[in-house]
Design a protein that fits this description.
Blueprint: H1 3-9, H2 50-62, E1 67-71, H3 74-82, E2 90-94, H4 99-109, E3 115-119, H5 125-128, E4 135-141, H6 153-162, E5 166-170, H7 175-178, E6 188-192, E7 206-210, H8 213-226, H9 232-242, H10 245-264, E8 269-273, H11 283-289, E9 296-301, H12 306-313, E10 320-321, E11 331-333, H13 345-350, E12 358-361, H14 367-378
Parallel strand pairs: 2-3, 2-4, 4-5, 5-6, 10-11
Antiparallel strand pairs: 1-7, 6-7, 8-9, 9-12, 11-12
Helix pairs in contact: 2-9, 3-4
The protein binds pyridoxal-5'-phosphate (PLP).
Length: 379
Amino acid sequence: MKQETLFIHAGAEPDPATGAIMTPIYQTSTFVQESPGVHKGYEYARTRNPTRTALETALATVENGKYGLCFASGSAASDAVIKLLNPGDEVIAANDMYGGTFRLFTKIFEKYGIKFHFINMQNANEVSKYINQNTKLIWTETPTNPMMNITDIAAVAEIAIKNHLLLCVDNTFASPYLQNPLDLGANIVLHSATKYIGGHSDSVLGALIVKDEELKNKLAFIQNSCGAIPGPQDCFLMLRGLKTLHVRMQRHCSNGEKIAHWLRNNPKVDKVYWAGFEDHPNHEIAKKQMRSYGGMMSFTLKDDSAEAAKNVLSSTKLFALAESLGGVESLIGHPSSMTHASIPREERIKNGLVDSLMRLSVGIEDADDLIEDLDNAIG
Ligand SMILES: *Cc1c(COP(=O)(O)O)cnc(C)c1O
């Protein structure tokens, strides 16, 4: 079955009780048992809830996995992955990552004795240099936030397989429509469904998708024991969002392409970071592993003062100044003071995340209106 059909039908069985075509919001904490231990597969809603099960099944299907596990947020999903590890274990992670993930790793898990190596993963061979007998997990995000660097998932997966390491790919920026890391050899796909999957900036939810049953059992044990699960209402909104992911993504991609080229041709703009440019340093890999290039991009102005950036950030009318991404409406952000403020400044600048860098999440409005808005703000 084609991906476009799966987005609409995956996990969507008519409700067994009533035939409702949309999975109902099972707003219940517990399920009545016929006799002790005899039930319909549901006992207590932290462990399983039918609305969540429908979403977990749908996400597993669209990521070409076998099992989906949903969490209260993308961060709670990341937390569950690291809880697979023990003190003394080591993780090799891409240095250009979501600031909240960096904070989780360094401020929460380092104190439990887990060691993180943050490296430039644009060259997959770099990974091998950091592997020792304590290494258990490789973690990458691609395209990265906000520098739009690309990791060659298949090349890193080959290293992971050879060394018996787990590879987790945060696929939030690409969405399951543009990229499927499990097909390229990753063990775990992570989503902040808050972004493209939900798509309407109205709920927070995270997901993990895997193929291996033993790995699923370990993660389900953590999910149930730690309890960072999403409520049924949020699962319902994500199921609804998923049904239009492919049509939204098509528009995000075409708008993104127009705006990236327009920015690049603007004399006041200095650098534009977007993997769809043929001269992007990782364009060939992006072309190989992604179906298109998405609507996320970052740029700097020739006037590199924080002041000039601040002027643009406070002048756009359609691009709302806000954190987050992936919704139908366009957003503009300032990573160094917003999403990435939790990363030390010298660490940020080393990776190109300068104070004047601005990030766009291009929405699905009319492209010409968006360009006019940026044109007025950049001046
Ligand atoms: C937002 C985001 C997260 C965290 O997800 P939440 O749902 O906000 O907890 C993780 N990774 C990436 C790439 C993100 O953009």
